[in-house]
Design brief:
Layout: H1 11-26, E1 35-37, E2 47-55, E3 58-64, E4 72-75, H2 83-97, H3 100-103, E5 106-113, E6 119-125, H4 131-144, E7 147-152, E8 155-159, E9 163-170, E10 173-180, H5 189-203, E11 209-213, H6 221-225, E12 230-234, H7 238-250, E13 256-259, H8 263-270, E14 289-294, H9 303-309, E15 314-319, H10 322-332, E16 336-344, E17 354-361
Parallel strand pairs: 1-16, 6-7, 11-12, 11-14, 12-13, 14-15
Antiparallel strand pairs: 2-3, 2-5, 3-4, 5-6, 7-8, 9-10, 15-17, 16-17
């Protein structure tokens, strides 16, 4: 992870540039003017990962410029990261500086925090972790008030929980999330909440069923499920599937069927190309899908999945890569038009942005 150039004074101009870029990408499709959802200027990133750089007997948090793994940028604080991460960084560093057991062959530290105030720290080692490490790590976790995971080759020792607990509010209802260590979560919590609210409003209150592809840990699934009759959701990551199932249960949401399939596999199932044992007992033909929600990886939807979405009168699409979003819209443009679009500034001070569109059949 390279460090963004932190310059709050330049934020407004950078956001204007991103808006112009999204507007240009969507111009061929006669998209409406995007709603723009900005980010806090600092302390917005809930996750951070640092390599450690050794100088003498001391180890320091370090980052590197892209393509350069030899010249460390030593870090004492990280203003784009959450206030909780900045509060924990010096205390954790002091702990490993004072303990040969904690610092020996420690090479990487990962922080996962939440708007709800929870924190999980992962310590990565080039050595086996023993009982002495466990004893010191348990004391450290208690002192810092965090859960802690120790990782080395073939080992994963958990002190406390192996997930952080988050709470996000959508339309006046609070949703609780388990965010597993090592799994994908949205890095900018405040902007994530704005994304959920936008998707909730764009979906609207419906009496039919929702198909969701790439559901992850249920980030969007939970609030969207309250707007429809039933949801069929798919996700390929086993860790994310388990987290999503726990999140559904924790929030008392019982109208979602979650299947561990990739979007490509579900496309084959709906096209009756081949059966899948993981769909045993699920009557796909009983669903009355009125809308599909997709939140694909940076590569966007593959052509077959994109064709699958064409069957739906409405396509709600969240994208972490507007270039592949534009390519997917181009494939669908002859049958669907963009009726809503939004820019979500998940990554201030970088060129990255997230976008959302609602496509409706012509």
């Amino acid at each position: 992870m390279s460090s963004p150039v932190f310059d709050p004074a330049a934020y407004a101009a950078q956001l204007q540039d991103k808006t112009a870029r999204l507007r240009e990408l969507l111009a061929p499709f006669d998209a409406p003017e995007p709603q723009v959802f900005d980010s806090p200027r600092e302390h917005y990133r809930l996750r951070a990962e640092f390599r450690l750089w050794r100088e003498g007997e001391d180890r320091h948090y370090a980052m590197f410029a892209p393509g350069d793994k030899r010249t460390p940028i030593l870090i004492d604080d990280f203003p784009i990261a959450s206030a909780r991460i900045n509060e924990l960084m010096p205390r954790l560093k002091a702990a490993w500086q004072a303990s040969a057991t904690l610092s020996f062959k420690l090479f990487q530290v990962e922080f996962l925090t939440t708007l709800a105030g929870d924190a999980l720290i992962t310590l990565c080692y080039h050595r086996p972790l023993d009982a002495a490490w466990q004893a010191e790590a348990e004391g450290l976790a208690g002192e810092l008030g965090v859960s802690l995971v120790g990782r080395s080759r073939g080992q994963r020792l958990v002190i406390g929980r192996d997930y952080a607990e988050e709470e996000l509010e959508v339309a006046g209802r609070r949703f609780r999330y388990r965010q597993p260590e090592g799994a994908f979560t949205q890095p900018n919590g405040m902007v994530c909440q704005k994304m959920l609210e936008w998707a909730y409003a764009a979906l609207g209150e419906r009496g039919d069923d929702l198909l969701e592809l790439y559901c992850g840990n249920g980030n969007f699934t939970l609030p969207l499920a309250t707007r429809v009759r039933r949801v069929l959701a798919t996700e390929i990551s086993k860790t994310s599937v388990n987290a999503a199932l726990a999140n559904l249960e924790d929030n008392g949401i019982d109208n979602v069927t979650l299947v561990r399939l990739s979007a490509e596999e579900l496309t084959e199932a709906l096209n009756e190309v081949r059966p899948f044992r993981r769909l045993a007992g699920i009557d796909l033909k009983s669903y009355e899908f009125g809308i599909v929600f997709v939140d694909p990886p940076r590569a966007g939807m593959d052509p077959d999945t994109c064709e699958l979405t064409r069957r739906f009168s409405r396509i709600l699409y969240i994208s972490c890569n507007p270039e592949t979003l534009a390519a997917n819209i181009a494939q669908l443009h002859d049958t669907h038009r963009v009726t809503r679009c939004a820019l979500f500034d998940q990554f201030p001070y970088t060129h990255h942005m997230e976008a959302g569109v609602l496509l409706e059949r012509r």
